[in-house]
Amino acid sequence: MDKNHEARRAILHNIQQEFNAPLAAIGQLVERITVVQEDQQATLLAQLRQESSRLMGLTDNLQLLTRLELEEWQPAIHTC
Predict the structure, then answer these.
(1) Deepest of 18, 51, 61, 63, by most Cβ within 10 A of its Cβ?
(2) Do the domain assignments include residue 16?
(3) Segment 36-72, tens digit of pLDDT
(4) How many domains in the chain?
């Protein structure tokens, strides 16, 4: 296996791990929110928002990485 292929496999493995953590947390929070007291639900909802924001950030980073890989991304040019 060449180094390029190994690097891609490592990146994909790391991406999978990065997505698994917030997805698992969201699953656990959803299960807990149905059985906790109403006054505790706000805390769990805040945690759900945090984990979903984390996933959205990961997705945004993957989209940017894909665009960079496909050479579709262009930096913003600012003129003074």
Answers:
(1) 51
(2) yes
(3) 998 899 999 999 999 999 999 999 988 888 888 888 7
(4) 1
What pLDDT shows up at residue 1? 67
CA nearest neighbour of 75 among 16, 67, 13 = 67
**Residue 35 is encoded by which pair of tokens?**
């059985």
In a domain, 24, yes or no: yes
Q: Dihedral (C-alpha) 25, 28, 34, 40: value to the nearest 10 degrees?
A: -50
**What is the domain range of residue 26?**
3-58
Flag whether 20 is in a domain: yes
Give the Cα separation of 63 and 69 in Å (integer). Answer: 10
Q: Please give the structure tokens belonging to residue 43.
A: 């805390």
Residue 15 Cα to chain centre, angstroms = 8
- Given a contact cutoff of 8 angstroms between Cβ atoms, the answer to whether 19 and 58 are in contact is yes
